[in-house]
Amino acid sequence: MTRGGPTTDGLFVPPFTLTDRTGRHVEFRPYDGERDAVEAMYEAFDPADRAQGIPPATAEAREGWLDVLLPGPGVLAWHEERVVGHAALVDDMAGGHELVVFVLQGYRGTGIGTALVRSLLGLARVRGLGRIWLTVQRWNHPAIAVYHKTGFELEGEEGLEIVMSCSVAGEG
Amino acid sequence: MRLLVVLEPGEASVEDALAPLHWSLERCAEGRVELTVILVGHTDGPEAGSAESTARTLLRGAGRPEDVTRLPGPPDKEVLRLLGRETFDEVAVSGGARTPAGKIRPSRLAERLLINAPVTLTLVR
Fold first, then answer.
1. Contact yes or no for A51 and B100 at CB 8 A
2. Which residues from A are below 8 Å from B102, CB to CB?
3. SS3 state at B76
4. What is the DSSP secondary-structure string of A81-140?
5. What is the residue-wise DSSP string for B94-105?
6. Cβ count within 10 A of residue A100
7. Which residues of B touch A88 (CB under 8 A)?
8. pLDDT tens, position by position, A93-145
9. How many angstroms separate the most distant Cα atoms in chain A?
10. Is the backbone peptide bond immediately before A15 cis, with ω within 30 degrees of 0?
């Protein structure tokens, strides 16, 4: 179902194309300055699907947020000239990177989120990054399942949210 | 109406820690509000000193008594004990910090008050 750059342990180095579970051909490519397309995806994002306060609700706040998100490594999922998923790493200035991933409504539950995380981790390895971490609300079982499947392990629990992390250094 | 303003420097930047006070002073303009300002958490740290002096300046500027009480000890327990001891109508507290990617991380204090405060709670951010 995939073609492109799988590594020996299940990560993918983009670009590659995947046929999602509904038969759509989705292309995964590293972010390369296509900011307008990313902004369009977040503008179309259902406010009810925001997680932990992001993406921000207003266009102005989203601008500032993308200024932080887009300089780091990122992967976009494209379907018919449109960005339908985005995963990014933000330098935490403490030797690690925080991972975030968003999939547009209508494309959830089709394997795109998993492929985004796998390809971003593949990109992170190519770029020599080490510790990758994220926070997720403990009731967000679909997201937690994706993170488990892609190699993240529980690192800590802080009240309503959990911290998961993985290392992509020195393998493959 | 009695409003308890909780400042927890050390959990976030001093500016973020003061957000509940800024919000509360705006509330005061709407009517009769009696403010009680407390400082919890790392009350001995440099952030606490900076937050306290800025808080006093803000209170003075608003024509309010410059009273800021330091309550050392676990912030959640101190605030809940105070709410059990005295009568307040509402509590204002910081909603928490953010991760590098912008996700909100509610502080332990915010979460504990959300569940356990016996009065209306406002998370300010």
1. no
2. 53-54, 56, 65, 68-69
3. helix
4. TEEEEEEEEEE-SSSEEEEEEEE-TTSTTSSHHHHHHHHHHHHHHHTT--EEEEEEETT-
5. E--EE-TT--EE
6. 23
7. 101
8. 999 999 999 999 999 989 999 999 999 999 999 899 989 999 999 999 999 99
9. 42
10. yes
Are B103 and A65 an interchain contact pair (Cβ–Cβ within 8 Å)? no
Helix ranges (H only) for chain B are 14-17, 19-28, 46-61, 75-85, 108-116
Q: Nearest by CB to A161, which of B98, B101, B105?
A: B105
pLDDT band for B125, please (50, 70, 90 cuts).
confident
- Give φ, ψ of A82 to 5 degrees: -130, 140
- Interface predicted TM-score (ipTM): 0.86
Q: Let me know if B28 is exposed, middle or buried by CB neighbors in 10 A (0-12, 13-18, 19+).
A: middle
Partners of residue B40 on adjacent β-strands: B71
Substitution target from B11, B98, B105 for chain A, most A beta carbons within 10 A: B105
